[in-house]
Write a structure and sequence with these properties.
The structure holds 2 protein chains of 2 kinds.
Chain A (H helix, E strand, L loop, with lengths): L16 H6 L3 E8 L2 E6 L4 E7 L4 E3 H15 L2 E4 L5 E5 L5 H10 L15 E2 L14 H10 L1 H5 L9 E4 L13 E6 L11 H4 L2 H6 L6 E4 L4 E4 L9 H5 L12 E6 L14 E8 L6 H17 L6 H8 L1 H8 L28
Parallel strand pairs in A: 7-8, 8-9
Antiparallel strand pairs in A: 1-2, 2-3, 3-6, 5-6, 9-12, 10-11, 12-13
Chain B lengths: L6 H4 L9 H11 L1 H16 L19 E2 L16 E5 L6 E3 H14 L3 E3 L7 E6 L1 H13 L15 E2 L13 H11 L1 H5 L9 E4 L8 H4 L2 E7 L4 E2 L1 H8 L4 H6 L7 E3 L4 E3 L9 H5 L4 E2 L4 E7 L13 E7 L6 H17 L6 H8 L1 H8 L30
Classes of the chains: A alpha+beta, B alpha+beta.
Chain lengths: 353, 395
Amino acid sequence: MAKTDIGPPDYKTMLPPVIERNYGKWLYHEILKPGVLMHVGESGEALYSVRAGSPRLVSTDHIREICDIAEKYCQGFLRFTSRHNIEFLLDDEDQIEPLVAELKSRGYPVGGTGHSISNIVHTQGWVHCHTPATDASGPVKALMDEIYEHFVESKLPAHVRIALACCLNMCGAVHCSDIAILGIHRTVPKTDNSRVPNVCEIPSTIASCPTGAIRGDMKNKTLTVNDEKCMYCGNCYTVCPAMPIADPENDGISIWVGGKVSNARSKPMFSKLAIPFLPNNPPRWPEVVHAVKNIIEVYASHAKKHERMGEWIERVGWERFFALTGIPFTDQHIDDFDLATETFRTSAQFKWR
Amino acid sequence: MERSDTPLLDELEKGQWPSFVKDMKEAARKNPMAKDLLKQLELSYKDKIGHWKHGGIVGVKGYGSGVIGRYSDRPDLFPHVQAFHTMRVNHPSGWFYKTETLRKLCDIWDKHGSGLTNMHGSTGDAILLGTTTEHLQPCFNDLSDAGFDLGGSGSALRTPSACVGPARCEWACVDSLDLCYHLTMAYQDQMHRPMFPYKFKIKISACANDCVAAIARSDLSIIGTWKDAIRINADEVRAYAENINIQKEVCDLCPTRCMEWDGNKLKIYDEDCTRCMHCINVMPKALRPGKETGASILVGGKAPIVKGALLSWVVVPFMKLEPPYDELKDLIERIQDWWDEFGKSRERLGELIQRLGMRVFLKAVGLPAVPQMVKAPRTNPYVFFWPEDLKKEEK
């Protein structure tokens, strides 16, 4: 019988000696170049981190290749970042250039530091999820190919954090991202009345609906959906398998902008709706890639240094954001959920464009 | 030339960014499950719809979480992914690894699963993507023998996660790694045997830059901070002045305008500082957090489902955090007890606080109301009073 509740491997056994010696006693850091960090301890010792991009969905052979590289250059010590990048941890400055050269020759992008676009946090999509409205890895790959320069260089006004979630459950932190790519459904669930009594719990399905669109039909032991109240979040399907909602012709992607999680300067902010719908167009989602690139380019040419997407938009105003990006403003941009009126303008102060 | 089975996915092998399709094909060359996964994904690309059935409860002995059941809706076409379950493997704090540890994980997964992983999933676990029901227990046995354990899933404590913290960051105000490991070990039961109304997430960022998105993504968010003055190295400030415009890039962007720069000396009015980290981020060689460090505790953060997304709210402005973290654990347990007692099924902590009121929550867990908890006091006159606040009628 296997031992249970042993917990994860102790991180203390995973730290390179230079970290053990300087743990909690770091003095400052510098970004030596995109993808290369130097942390200097009070002791005067330095730790070098070389950051490389990853598709996140990786094979065991890919992990072994990463291990080979880490053993060759950094005594087998590495870590992953909260945005799925790989960081090779070195104490020998002379190994940086050979490591970077080897990473590049093997096709690993080196970067993601400073005012860049780091890796896109994303979800499973069609690869392994049962509720997706779009794929995750595919749109991410298609987009990263097109904005690659912003990962390997650091020339934006500030960080641009992009995240993708393939449905409203948002397994990634997309609701507070500079740019969020969110899979959405647009049609109501198709209730299978013959299966509801066997596979669904009626009260919990009713309770799962944020807008109260679901009612019990006790006589027939099933559920009815008020189509006018349904905003297609798909949460009913999560609790009741007999209410499938995926619709290949109408599912797609929405784009949200201006969120952040950091407290630096401005407070953490939610992302706000920029584009209500773009079609699912695999394998390369050209409409989504084009829309995101446009937002990045407009931001890059108008924001001031250190200004995150949301800080820039708040300074210039949403009316100017829509004017500069050319994104049409629609009634879908105006909130109609709880507390919606908090986002309505209550002053006579606004810009014409 | 042989015609490809996956013409749509082949398009995603092109381009400069590393391709997940290459990894899937690499795994598919030696593993029939990975091969069928690739083909099923190609069908999804063609049909624009997922091909996984709804859920399914599977697991390993003694645990109610850590394994996510997954079944193909086209087992006729893709028999090797008929069952294709995920195992969540709890990562070491801060995602630090020695290669020998990673190699062990790879060997176990090649033996039992598809050979495909996510390094890592959104909550933090190493995700082993795809194995059969029969392989779950043997795979867990091998993982356990090699020193790994499963993470949380379902209505349980989810795998806590932490930023890189004092292992590499000079801004760490708490030992995020040690705290994460300590809480993970202390709450193994809550992680592995779902007993809560819904999921509960704990994330620890050792400073207000919040690299693990604790405020946005966790029910209990721990953010490192300090109480005393920012430490200034005046010589290094002057050195920065050679390269950056301190007035414009630092002082003018300070949210409380609590800094003055006269071209030679930087003055910080620390009583006005809200410790946002901006000035320290821009001049890491010159400025450091203070020495009286601890954390702010916030609660209630979550993604939109069901009642809308929430960012966590401050409930303890400052707590010293040192092993064995008794004050924090005591608070966590009081919070979970209250949530467990009053929360409805699938109601997150933040939603329960919204439903019953922050004052009820504070009273129940024994926290005093302080101005740091709000952006502003209420504007509506719908104020409740506790019975004990009122004079009783003399009889």
